[in-house]
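Replying to the earlier thread about multi-chain prediction with a worked example.

Input:
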Amino acid sequence: MTRDITFAVLGTGGIGRRTLEVSQYKDGITPVAACDRNGIAVDRDGLDVDELLDATEGNIASEEAYEVGDGVESAGDATGSDGGPLTDGGEVAADADGGVKQHGAGAGVVASAQAEPTRSPIQDVIDEAVAAGIDAVLLALPNLEHDFVPNTAERFADAGYDGVLVDVLKRSRVIGTLDEREETFADAGMTFVCGAGATPGFLTGAAALAAQSFVEVESVDIWWGVGLKSGYEDNRGTVREDIAHLDGYDVETAREMSEAEIEALVDEHDGRFEFHDMEHADDVLLERAGVCDAADVSVGGVLDVRSDEKPVTTTVEVTGRTFDGETATNTFELGDDTSMEANVNGPALGYVRRGVAMNRDGRTGVFGPAELMPGF
Amino acid sequence: MTRDITFAVLGTGGIGRRTLEVSQYKDGITPVAACDRNGIAVDRDGLDVDELLDATEGNIASEEAYEVGDGVESAGDATGSDGGPLTDGGEVAADADGGVKQHGAGAGVVASAQAEPTRSPIQDVIDEAVAAGIDAVLLALPNLEHDFVPNTAERFADAGYDGVLVDVLKRSRVIGTLDEREETFADAGMTFVCGAGATPGFLTGAAALAAQSFVEVESVDIWWGVGLKSGYEDNRGTVREDIAHLDGYDVETAREMSEAEIEALVDEHDGRFEFHDMEHADDVLLERAGVCDAADVSVGGVLDVRSDEKPVTTTVEVTGRTFDGETATNTFELGDDTSMEANVNGPALGYVRRGVAMNRDGRTGVFGPAELMPGF
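Result:
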């Protein structure tokens, strides 16, 4: 009854690759395009995900590759912070060997037999999304430049794309930047689901649902644990984004840190970082949905890059007042054996499905995860 | 930006009345009609809920009134099991004093200054819903006759109602009966959200969301606790429905029990009933949403009608396998101080909002709560 969904992945770092992998377990949702900084793979009948993952696994993880940039998961490059042509001309420049098919370590997606090198991977995905009518595009990009995802989304709108964009952004301030473009997205017929990873995303949705017992929500406390030993190489962009939340660091300083500086910081902390009062968009996304004030939401957690065990159990606590005058706390808790990747990519695809259903009904604009839950 | 929502309540027993009460705490959702067996209250500008509740509170709770039937919360009457004209002619007959305004104990909704007596309360609500374009109607009716809610919904469709119906039904088998009518509902332009109370409803949605970590769900275990001392009189219909789940009882035997027999059973159990493997529609609703097989869902719980403390903590456990091969359990837990009423009526209104948003987008048909979550 439900039509199948096609989707593309913009960015084949940890999140992008794992989303492709998870989609293999799902019915009726088919990846048809994927790109990184240097290449794009397209197959309208569905990518051969195994081949793509096998060919690219581990080939973007070298320190040098991270610094000079191969994969879009490299924050320093993909976000255009290198002053390259991305933010000017709207294209990602290929630093090295552009146009020449690469293989082996550092090659990125072009190591796949399905991929072709390109100097304009984002534009190529946009063109393909429009030409093939791809239902949804997952923006699996780091976002240390706050307007990178909004600007990229605007390029989709300008090109006449009328499908769904889903991103896994984290920072509260990005939502405002998206909101400024809501009319552009709506005019194009696009449905943008923002902040659709784990937190914000999965846990934001859980908070919105947990709030249903209450007529007034007093606080939402999100406390996450991530053990990222085996996923470390794959998720350096995410780790860099997290470092920007530490006391004494911000987006700019984190972006400018060399890989060696990050490793030194990891050593200094014995691989374990604790975060409090993070600027995660759960706050504004819950406020948008009318659940509570952004100020009542707190996000923190513990990241351990030297263990795959979660250092703490990921928990969402929603405290509120019921119509009959009681105060209580509803709790959502993730099993410790669910990895960060599982908790980002399952929900991301879940929100893709919901976004596509809305888009097919003509519901366009910008939506956070909490707005896709039962209304508060 | 979002247009206000108007809604009607069919049935002003515990669930109906408490939903009216909870709606007072919500923005942009206005009750405009409510009925029980003997009367209907309508105000297109919004009912005076305080007056309605004050006038009707406690006036339907006498044992005699329950047995011979005043309020639609009385299962023996509202479902037409008394062999009265409901199932034949489609109307609820007023047994006593029909057409004469009643006041005081036993009068039901007509004790309110806003209400008028009627011999056809359901048809009157249908007519008003069509005439006034009421956005949503909450069917807060007991449903011991499994086709009562589906048949009532069909009457809305036949009358040309093109809005949203939301019910709080419990039994799995009712979903099939609704599905058989899906085309009728869709043709009329109706959006039917079924099983939108606590369980199924709130907890079904929580299970669907909790499943997002997994690529395969192995089991969903719902275990609820309800302390219903002060809410007992208000929720006799619900208690009777629960008794039908006990070993040795079924829908028919529970329906035919006299009030005295129920009290004797309550005494025998010291007010506390434990339920296992209940036929709650969470199973088929999760299967509809593709989350798991109905057979993998179990629902049970403990009801204590002599305490307002929950005898056990209400918990949803979703166990599954992640894409990276781990098995884990995600847990959703309701605070012990959230009453059954809070956990039914908040979600019911939440699903009303979601249903209205879908209906306004032209999404018609039959949907369970899990289908309103991020797709699995």
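Chain A has 15 helices and 13 strands.

Feel free to reuse this layout for your own posts.
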